[in-house]
From TrEMBL:
Origin species: Caenorhabditis tropicalis
Source superkingdom: Eukaryota
Source organism phylogeny: Eukaryota, Metazoa, Ecdysozoa, Nematoda, Chromadorea
CDD domains, alphabetized: BTB_POZ_ZBTB_KLHL-like, F-box_CeFBXA-like
GO biological process: innate immune response
SUPFAM superfamilies in the record: POZ domain
Protein name: F-box domain-containing protein
Residue ranges constituting the F-box domain according to the UniProt record: 124-175, 473-524, 1026-1077
Annotated ranges, domain BTB: 733-802
Pfam families: BTB (PF00651), F-box (PF00646), FTH (PF01827), HTH_48 (PF17906)
Coiled coil start-end: none
Amino acid sequence: MSEFIKNNPSAIEVFIFYEKEKKSNGEKLNKKIWNLIGKDDELTRLFDKMTIEDEEVKRKEIRQLVAENQDNLRLCILSDVIDKKSMSQSVLNIAKIIGTFEIDCQDFEFWFNRFSSGNHDLDQKTFSDLPLLIVGNIVENLDFRAQMRLREVSHGFGNIMDQVKPSADRIYFNTDYTSPQNTLNLSICNSKADSDRFWQRIYDGEDNLKEAFDGVMILLSNPRLRLECFQWFDKQPSEMSVQFIDRIKSLNHKIESKNLESNFNGDLMIDFVKTMKPGSLEQFVFHGKFEPIHIDRLAQLDQWKKAKAVIFNVIVYDFSRCLHHFQHFEAVFVKAESISMEDLLFVKKLFIQNDKLKSFAIVVPNKPTESEIVEALGLSELYYNEEEGYSFRLYDIPGSNDYLEVCIEEIEQLVVTNQDNLRICILSDVIDKEPMIESVLSIAKMIGTYDIDWQDFEFWFNRFSSGNWNLDQKTFSDLPIEVIENIVEKLDFGSKMRLREVSSGLRNIVDQVRPSIDQLYCGFYHKDSQNTLTLKIRQDPESDGYCKRFYDREDNFKIAFDGIKTLFSNPRLREVNEKLMEILNSLNHKIEIVHLEASLDGDLMIDLLKSVKSGTLEHIEFQGEYELIHIDRLAQLDQWKKAKTVYFRREIFDFFRCLHHFQHFEEVLVAVKSLSINDILLVKKLSIQNEKLKKFLIFYGSKPSVLEIGEALGKTTPKMSVSEELFAKSDKTDAILVVDGKKLHVNKAVLSCHSDYFDALFDSDTVINEDSIPEYPIQYADLNDFIALLSLVHHRNPILPTAKNAEILLEMADQFLLPSATRHVELFICSSPAIAQIKKLELADKYNLDILLNRAVLEYKRVKDVVAMRQFLKFSDKTKAAIFDRMIDLQSEKDKISVQMSKFIKNHPSAIEVWMFYQRGKEKDGLYERLCKIIGENGISEEEFKKQFDKMTMEDKESHRKEIKQLVVNNQANLRLCILSDVIDKKSIAESILNIARIFGTLDIDSQDFEFWFNRFSSGDWNLDQKTFSDLPLFIVSNITEKLNLPSRMRLRRVSRGLPNIVDQVKLSIDQLIYEIEQKGSQITLKIITHKFETPVESWGRCYYGEDELKIAFDGMKTLFSNPRLQLKSFHWKNHLSSEIDVQFLDIINSLNHKIEIVELSAKLNGGPMIDLLKAVKPGTLEVISFQGKFESKDIDLLAGLDQWKKAKSVCIFEPIPDFSRCLHHFRYFERVDMVVESISMNDNFFVKSLFCDKLKCVRIYTDNKPPKSEIVKALGLTKLRFKDIYFYRLYDFPGANEYLDVSITIFGIDFYGDNSL
């Protein structure tokens, strides 16, 4: 602290001025910070001196100190943090007191957040203060541009930069000669998908080119540089290229790069290759001209010999002469002028000799004919790869199980480009009377491709076969009526409606075919001065049949209703789900089903379950939407109770509240949004209690870490590759799968049940060892991936998928026909944030995963974020439809927000005027679009906006500022558009509030309101309207009500009819009630005090005067006691007046339909009424009873027969009981007894002594009439007098026990204490 003050002495002066002004505003001085800076006499004198100086003159001085150095504000910020002010309150207060808006918001926020974190150090850490190791780590994570700038800071940073690993792994050079000056485009970037480290710069002129080379040389000189790609493109051979090669040849080490790409010609490219480190270079891409002599020289280099792939994108002349140089590569792509049969035979020989060679592609115009190649190479007939879409022939390599694929592309390209080219071939086969199957196979074999449009082929084959040899395509009107009907039936609703308007004939067809919809929504609402009808018609979610339209005005309403009438007039319209339920409910018997799977939602699924015969159903799979109330209803059905397994494929909100309904199942699968440690422990407890439970799978959106789960469960996480544990031999395994030489013991029945592949495998003859346990080899599968896949269906504790292997597992599940494993992986991918959204869509589309598709499209939050067109086009129609549906939903949400915004503007018209003034300094162009982005296009028309804006710009700015300032002061809601605008612009809260205060010229801003709206908008909620209490969900209202004090609840009951029901059901916020009735003057007074034990400040009292108010009080009492959740620790009833009031009180108590829960009861009631009150209390809850009324012995007899009396722990009787000795035995149940009696005899003392056992700890008897002290001591056999703490006592030792009795005899009575009760 002292170091900061030493360097910033003015900060003390600014702080003292700030504290002085706070004091004058009624705030207390911050003693904590005075202690931090070390308050002394000098500071006190400075403070006193400042109080007598002219305030405004001093304010100007302080303002100047702050403007010159923002550090002077730090003590003021720290003071506000210690005072627990919010950031907005602090910045406004400082700006107001010092009188300046010139505050650096970023600096202010930094120090406010730093001090709030508990770090009160006022000194700024500099980069040079950090340890060298940390500096190195920071530098290594900087982008290239930042690293280059850092080198210029100091010689030390230059040394650090030259040692750390550069953040770039790709370098691209590209020259341009179109401009007057030679230009070099230099790009340096990082290849990681999640990296934004990209730097690009254009250099022109000789000096700048030298600067570019110097910068790159610094990068290339770093020995830790590891490049993925190094690329140089010089559009024309130039001196620049030669200079570059000379520079990199001067390095004292070789450059490490995996890929090298350039358009250098022969010799220059050879020099470039020589600068690369042999072994690191994997692929060449040559775009320059090469002669065979250049390739001969390249082939002598180690870089060439150790590379894996080579690409020549320019024709290599006389390629045959250097073909032998390519025999060590794994992949070759080359363009040649011509190729001979000998060359092709040599390439074939290369594949036989080189196991590494995977592909050899030659693009060549001059080659032997296809038939010559097939004959010379000994190739098979034509095959077609459907997945990749190409045709090929095979050559079996002698002495090996491998084969060679040979693709020759000629005629097939003509067919793929235009299917019409096949028509004459089809007609020829029809004339030759070839069957359709033979025709298509013959054509595919001849052309060398199966990429044939089958529908088009079938159409033309059938047409030619009918005798119509016309090769031209027919139009719609030429089609037969049944064909048109089939086409119309497949159209969406909008297209059908348009088709009805073409002709009367088409209208008749449309009205007869089945409608392509199953959902109809009509919404009617009033907007502005017009009524509007929204008509939305759509097909099931799997289709793209969707139509939405708005109608306004009476004429358009008629159009809409005519359309609806047309729709309902169609006899083929039906609702599938309801139709199904009608059929099932009409049956006179229950259906016997073992496995039930349905996508019905809540109530419909419950109805379906009721139609199934109880006891037959074992597995239930729910794919619809469910709430807790539905599960509660399901749990009451016998079908549910007797089922063994249950799956919920969609998320269940707050699932663990209904976990108890799942305790009888053997297997459970559910999806939840989030998973906590408590939830996991609940499932663990369930698995311990239920011996039948074998598997409980939970798919989640978020969960604790694996380490936290392991610690909570007391288990270690299973390792990935422990096949011995997962697939060890046991009495349940009866087969072995051999993968990569490893043996996995499995159960045939389990795998056969889950997979048709294994079912067929186990029935086949593919067995290695038939003598003992059969062994089956599994080829083309990685061991670890295969174990992870099988564990999903074969093991109780499967290996969970990861983001890295999820796609592989999906592919393998598809390969081995394991749909159950596919579903496991699908649900994992749904919940994995590590898998990109576009990747999820691709996987859902490729493997037809409906749940993943729905989840993936829901991750899109804005229309503009939806996939790009180039990605969109590659998806199937089903996926495209899902994406379109999401776009429509997002647009609907946007429209909804627009309507909400319009409502706010309607209620706060001045908000737009305030926003316009706030944006006044900006260009007019684009402002209307900016406003529409905030409030929607319905908020204000463009004409109205321009009119208001032009009017505002013509007015005097200062006079208009005063008007705007008044609008803001009168209603802070007028600031909301300005706040939202700043949030959209990503301004900080301090920057926003200061900017608004500066522009409007006022600091009278409600900082709490400002902070609320700023945080709300920042969270993504742009709704400008304040939520009211009635807008909240019922459970939230209940939670709020439960936390209110009693007066607030009573007031809330009077707000509406619905609220009393809520108030009367939630748990009361009190646990003590005191009712006291007395006479004050001529009026009867009832005083009620409520209290909360845990929070003493929560107490409330009220007095009622007169008969009318007493009725109000008793009505309130009835409301309180009627709440079944009332639990009182203490209840006191004190009536000092007539017994009629007691009767009214007891009438209320006796009218309740439940017992009251009270721990301590105190009442001034005589015998009978007190017994009635005691009967109204729940037995077992009552522990302490205090009787303040008069009792006879017979009353005690009646009390002793009540459970409430027997289960209580303590009793206190304040009025003397006549003939007390007769009922003394009734007090044996208690731990403590306090009573007042008229007299006590020696026999009574003996009896009390005999009552003491393990339970009774204390008996205190108050009386004036008792035997003399000496007689009591002698009769009870007590010891001499002893003293402890503040009283005298004597002891009685129980015979044959280690216990004793303390007896204290005073002028007030006799006290008995059991052992250790003191």
